[in-house]
Amino acid sequence: MKNTIKKGMLLGFIGIICFSLTLPATSIAVPYFGATVVGLGRTVIAAILVSFIFFLKKEALPNKRQFLSLVIVAVGAVLAFPLLTTYAMKSLPVSHGAVELALLPLATAGFAMWRGGERPSKRFWISSITGAITVLIYAGYLGLGQLQTGDLALIVAILLLGLSYAEGGKLSNELGSWQVIAWAILIGAPFFMLPVGFSLSSHMLQAPIEAWISLFYLGVVSQFLAYVAWYGGMSLGGIARVGQIQYLQPFLMIGFSALFLGESITWLTVVLAIVVVTCVMIGKKSPVIKKESHHKNSVIKR
């Protein structure tokens, strides 16, 4: 069991590293391709890759119940989050968005209780709330000020993605991690092709190489491969516990922003990162009660 949890945590960490490059890549790509192409076009790119994989593997169709769950995943991970974060990155700095996304673990844990049948312990919630307060302190330090339209877009994106994470993590036990996001991509892509097609223009061909790399990173890695690792990690390690790793995401994002966008890193970032890592480790060792199919609760020792 311990090896399974460790593997789940490792896959989750790989997924978070990949996700942490999403906002910096979006910030680079949006000025050249626009919000629609970057927000929805990444799904079209991923759908081409997924269609090729499905053709080779001849995957069976999901049943009706699984399809309804996949629609929830598609709404959050394929439609709402890419589009809303792309919209937010038109007006907000990456560090701003990174801090707000640190609230995602709480959203994921909350939806895990509802959709995944998990009951995190009191110690788990204390570590989660401590981590959330830490990133809010960091938000105050950055002087984020009053909520803007971009902030509201990020909050909605966080709620819908948290639901998508919980639903996808649960469904990964049945379909497999890569199949969940792959089917969600195929469900969403047909609705995106028309608006993306109308938004294409010849001047996009003049975009620099870093903008093209960012766009294809968003399509291949952020929209597909990162979710394969992330849903696989939640399936093995538990939705709520692996979801704790998301507290590292804002600091990874800020680090990548400094590397690729020239943003500075302060001493407070390092100190709060240590606090957040501590919260993640405490949450990782906390017991999680999972509701079994025979309607009895059992504590999973992880």
From TrEMBL:
<dbReference type="Pfam" id="PF00892">
    <property type="entry name" value="EamA"/>
</dbReference>
<feature type="transmembrane region" description="Helical">
    <location>
        <begin position="124"/>
        <end position="144"/>
    </location>
</feature>
<keyword id="KW-1133">Transmembrane helix</keyword>
<keyword id="KW-0812">Transmembrane</keyword>
<feature type="domain" description="EamA">
    <location>
        <begin position="149"/>
        <end position="280"/>
    </location>
</feature>
<feature type="domain" description="EamA">
    <location>
        <begin position="7"/>
        <end position="137"/>
    </location>
</feature>
<dbReference type="InterPro" id="IPR000620">
    <property type="entry name" value="EamA_dom"/>
</dbReference>
<feature type="transmembrane region" description="Helical">
    <location>
        <begin position="212"/>
        <end position="233"/>
    </location>
</feature>
<feature type="transmembrane region" description="Helical">
    <location>
        <begin position="39"/>
        <end position="56"/>
    </location>
</feature>
<feature type="transmembrane region" description="Helical">
    <location>
        <begin position="180"/>
        <end position="200"/>
    </location>
</feature>
<dbReference type="InterPro" id="IPR037185">
    <property type="entry name" value="EmrE-like"/>
</dbReference>
<protein>
    <submittedName>
        <fullName>DMT family transporter</fullName>
    </submittedName>
</protein>
<comment type="similarity">
    <text>Belongs to the EamA transporter family.</text>
</comment>
<dbReference type="InterPro" id="IPR050638">
    <property type="entry name" value="AA-Vitamin_Transporters"/>
</dbReference>
<keyword id="KW-0472">Membrane</keyword>
<feature type="transmembrane region" description="Helical">
    <location>
        <begin position="68"/>
        <end position="88"/>
    </location>
</feature>
<feature type="transmembrane region" description="Helical">
    <location>
        <begin position="150"/>
        <end position="168"/>
    </location>
</feature>
